[in-house]
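Hey L., structure's done. Input below.
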Amino acid sequence: MDEANKLKIRDFLRSFKRIAAKGGIYVIPRDKNQQALADLELTRKNRFEIIMSLSVLDYCSGPEPDRDKPGYIWEFGRIVEGTPVYIKLKVADTDRGQIAICISFHAAEFPLTFPCKACKVEED
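Output:
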């Protein structure tokens, strides 16, 4: 992966986290997202902390156009309590400004790949 793409990932995460720090993260209320909290014995606060701690190294793929709404989707992964967790994020524009959205946070249903595991990108 080239340096420009790594910087785009870093910039997305910075933007997402800045928006989330101000307004929280809206998690799509899907059954599998709710079940993941119970299965992994996590609280909503734990989930928030995990998402806020994501780095370029956790990147899996994206950005891809959202097929349901305007905007782009980014996919990340993290090992949580020994379980690979699939995390799909988006920043959406609304009439009240931008919001941070977590579309998916659940056990991975397919193997996760991490193309940036060897990259050295400044995180801050």
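Strands lie at 25-27, 59-65, 72-80, 83-94, 97-107. The longest strand covers residues 83-94.

-- N.
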